[in-house]
């Protein structure tokens, strides 16, 4: 049992709940992961960066789908008007001029084939399981829990602020154009996180609901961490690439 697993048993003030949610991120967000540290230190090979971009695409592609599930369950028009901005950010105006398209540009800029990336067929099994679990969570859990799971965006500007300058400095084949996905994300993520946090603090009005939103954020942090665990296992020094996954060394 972690300190977060029963943190709300006696009830929390909104300020205390917010502080605890931020503590979850400080303790469990994936900018603490060894693979992230290797990335920003310049220690990853081009193949490792390709594998990261390929697998992360699966996560990027699921975001507007999970947000559509949240949108469909929301009865408040004001909530829907705000939440749909997330879908527009990723899909753009025609499906391929938003964040997902910019992630494809990142992946192809690292040398991957566009059709292969979009197909997701060479992604790690663990990646597919993780993103499927995220979609299921946002579909099957309460609206409050689904919203709370998005609060990893509170910490997104931090990891982007670490990642982008380091990648530009450490990898001579990475350019600002390749990393264009990240340019609007700090502003978008901060806007979205502010709205989601206000919603959570308003509607998590009992110990049970407060614990549910804490658990939802822990779940999301664990999911993102597990994706990097899978990448490190498959493409680290020992190289345990599962059958059917991206393997540039295969014949």
UniProtKB/TrEMBL annotation:
Residues forming coiled coils: none
Which reaction is recorded as catalysed by this protein? 6-(2-amino-2-carboxyethyl)-7,8-dioxo-1,2,3,4,7,8-hexahydroquinoline-2,4-dicarboxylate + 3 O2 = pyrroloquinoline quinone + 2 H2O2 + 2 H2O + H(+)
Q: In which pathway does it act?
A: Cofactor biosynthesis; pyrroloquinoline quinone biosynthesis
Matching SUPFAM superfamilies: Heme oxygenase-like (SSF48613)
The Gene Ontology terms for molecular function here are:
pyrroloquinoline-quinone synthase activity
Any idea where the Thiaminase-2/PQQC domain is? 22-229
Q: What is its EC number?
A: 1.3.3.11
Q: Keywords on this record?
A: Oxidoreductase, PQQ biosynthesis
Q: Does the keyword Oxidoreductase apply?
A: yes
Give GO terms for biological process: pyrroloquinoline quinone biosynthetic process
Indicate the family of this protein. Belongs to the PqqC family.
Its biological function? Ring cyclization and eight-electron oxidation of 3a-(2-amino-2-carboxyethyl)-4,5-dioxo-4,5,6,7,8,9-hexahydroquinoline-7,9-dicarboxylic-acid to PQQ.
What is the protein named? Pyrroloquinoline-quinone synthase
Organism from which the protein derives: Ciceribacter ferrooxidans
Phylogenetic placement of the source organism: Bacteria, Pseudomonadati, Pseudomonadota, Alphaproteobacteria, Hyphomicrobiales
